[in-house]
Write a structure and sequence with these properties.
six-stranded parallel sheet; 551 residues; 19% strand; 36% helix; Udp-n-acetylmuramoylalanyl-d-glutamate--2,6- Diaminopimelate Ligase, Chain: A, domain 1; CBS-domain; alpha/beta; single chain; elongated; 18 helices; 4 domains; inorganic pyrophosphatase (n-terminal core); 21 strands
């Protein structure tokens, strides 16, 4: 699939991430960025366990960003990044801005803060319904708006300030009808200008380009009265005056329907369908205005670009994966059921760790691995292969682990003990936290099966984990909507595991899959030589379910 280099590509492991899924994502994102110069971002869709936190801290690597949902968001839409308009912008200027941008809505901002919005309909309504000659004062219309709207020239007084009182009148005979603070339109030159000044006018508008005499201008300046000269006649000036009103007077500022860049398209679609206007303001994570979207922008919404690491099953993938464009899959597990829109690059090798595959790709591309990246990749291999004791471990894993340890400058046995100790502090964890720590969900012959695993270095740790898991496993099974769930507590030094389970048929599945009796006293099942979920435990569960299904 073709990569859109203008947009980020998210490199992401499975839910309930372990050290391998996180390290392989970080390593592969680094490799892709160095090879392509693109924007590949290692992210995670679950919370880090203590082991992984220890590994990242040890090598000074910042934890990947947490993304809980990969569905299309507002940020993925083709947004109209039209600048916000000032609240004192005139209606005429607002209408022109809409016309030039081919939109029917303007967002009114103060700095980057959204204050309101005005639509073309609002402007039309204001023009058709306004018959109050005092509305310019009521709206505190800036004099600069009047000058701009009339395309006029100020020949006396100051452009600063707003209309604070009076009404708009057209001079008929002398100063008849002119009151204190009025804006007076002079249709026939300036012969009535002096009388209007004496009557207390605050602003004179000289029409048809007629320029007042020096005496009139000096008299106006002494009284702090503004005189504006415009090319338009009195009739046209009368029509234009209301167009100088600031948009703040007519804009909507209450109960605004706004969206955030992080909102999901599926969530905002019904909101937009119920609203009457066409454009909606968009705010960033700080609540600042960034642009507008409309219903038509749904057509240009782009799926997020994703690379799946260390998994290929939909029920292990980030929420919303069906809405993403999967570009690549790098894995070392059995093939699952992730569907892709088009053909993708898929690398699946029978190795003990996805991080081994990533390191092989560094070598194939002749790209030198940074020491800190080498450190986390080595840690992931040690973790997934249980210090090379797991049956999933291959000679390739061992060779790659040794090379990475040399680059990172670590002693593998010593480092592994530290790592597993950091991850096996079970006393501080609840049973639910232990079950979620390294948990994967599988669909086997229509059954929803969950398998969790934790590793320990001492027998006492196993007893603590087993006890806490028993107390929480039934509730956990219900919350995760599983038919059965199994919890492996693996003691690395003795290469054995204790199993806790829940589910109506779980004990029968264990009995059939491992050909063993189930303890009648309610204690956990002890399995010697069983340490790998992928290569030993899961195949036995599949076999057990198959046997029961055929009975």
């Amino acid at each position: 699939m073709q990569v859109d280099q203008t947009r980020p590509v998210y490199v992401i492991g499975h839910k309930n991430p372990d050290t391998d899924s996180v390290a392989s994502a970080i390593g592969y994102a680094d490799l892709k960025n160095r090879l392509t110069g693109g924007d590949y971002r290692a992210v995670r869709c679950g919370h880090l366990n203590d082991e992984t936190k220890f590994v990242l801290s040890k090598f000074g690597i910042k934890p990947p960003e947490y993304i809980k949902d990969i569905r299309i968001q507002v940020m993925d839409m083709d947004m109209r990044k039209l600048p916000g308009a000032a609240s004192d912008m005139s209606l005429k200027k607002a209408w022109k801005a809409m016309h030039d941008a081919n939109v029917v809505t303007l967002c009114i901002t103060e700095g980057k803060t959204l204050k309101g919005l005005i639509t073309l309909g609002d402007i039309v309504d204001s023009y058709m319904d306004t018959d109050d000659s005092g509305i310019l004062a009521e709206a505190h219309t800036p004099y600069s708006n009047i000058i701009e709207t009339l395309e006029g020239t100020l020949v006396a007084g100051s452009e600063e300030g707003t209309v604070e009182g009076g009404k708009v009148v057209v001079a008929q005979k002398g100063a008849a009808g002119v009151s204190l603070g009025d804006i007076v339109i002079l249709p026939d030159g300036t012969e009535d200008a002096r009388e209007c000044l004496e009557a207390g006018a605050s602003c004179l508008i000289s029409c048809s380009g007629t320029r007042p005499s020096d005496g009139v201008r000096n008299a106006a300046s002494e009284k702090n009265v503004r005189i504006i000269v415009t090319k338009y006649d009195a009739f046209f000036v009368s029509r234009l005056m209301d167009q100088s009103i600031p948009v703040s007077y007519f804009m909507k500022s209450q109960d605004l329907v706004t969206f955030r860049l992080t909102d999901y398209v599926d969530d905002i679609r019904p909101v937009m369908a119920q609203a009457h206007h066409r454009y909606f303001p968009v705010l960033d994570e700080k609540g600042e205005y960034v642009g507008m979207i409309s219903r038509r922008n749904f057509l240009g919404a782009k799926r997020k670009q994703v690379i799946l690491m260390d998994h290929n099953e939909k029920n292990q993938a980030v929420t919303g994966i069906e809405s993403a464009s999967i570009l690549e899959i790098i894995d070392h597990h059995r093939l699952g059921a992730v569907e892709t829109i088009s053909p993708v690059f898929f690398r699946n090798q029978p190795l003990g760790s996805a991080s081994t595959i990533v390191y092989l790709m560094y070598k194939e591309a002749h790209v030198e691995v940074k020491p800190e990246i080498a450190g986390i990749l080595c840690a992931a291999i040690l973790s997934d292969t249980l210090i090379y004791k797991s049956p999933t471990c291959t000679e390739t894993d061992i060779q790659c682990g040794n090379e990475l340890a040399h680059i990172a400058g670590i002693r593998q046995d010593e480092f592994a003990r530290e790592m597993f100790k950091a991850g096996s502090d079970f006393e501080r964890k609840t049973g639910e936290e232990l079950l979620k720590r390294d948990f994967k969900k599988f669909t086997i012959e229509g059954q929803s099966v969950g398998i969790a695993q934790v590793n320990a270095m001492m027998k006492e740790e196993i007893e603590v984990a087993e006890k806490k898991a028993k107390e929480a496993i039934d509730k956990f099974m219900l919350s995760e909507k599983l038919d059965m769930v199994f919890f492996m507590v693996t003691l690395i030094p003795s290469e054995s595991s204790r199993i806790v389970w829940a589910g109506e048929s779980a004990d029968e599945v264990l009995k059939a899959g491992f050909q063993t009796d189930i303890p009648s006293d309610g204690s956990g099942l002890f399995l010697r030589g069983i340490v790998s979920r992928k290569q030993q435990f899961l195949p036995a569960i599949v076999e057990g379910i198959s046997v029961l299904g055929s009975d």
